[in-house]
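Example 3.2
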Amino acid sequence: MTDEEIGEAKQVKTNLGFMAKVFGTAIFVVYSGAMIYARLNTLEMEILRLQHDVTMNAEFRIKWPRGELGALPDDAEQNMRHTFIEKQMQKHEEQLEKIRYQVPQNP
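Structure, written as tokens:
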């Protein structure tokens, strides 16, 4: 049996320091990959949240002025007052028309 033959009796001499470096490098690469993957997932989730917020804001921006999303309580109160004033102005105009075009009656 020569030194060049490979078999069960062949002994492999390795440097323990080199093995530690290889294992350390492998562990570092796997850990770094996992950290990069986790960071990418975090950024993707943040992008999805921002896109959702932008979509909701765009919908609000379009529908709110049209009154499709409701109104503020202050707006409702202001609308009620406005309606009351319009009715009151209409009554005043009717009374003015009666006075303006009323034919005086002679006794």
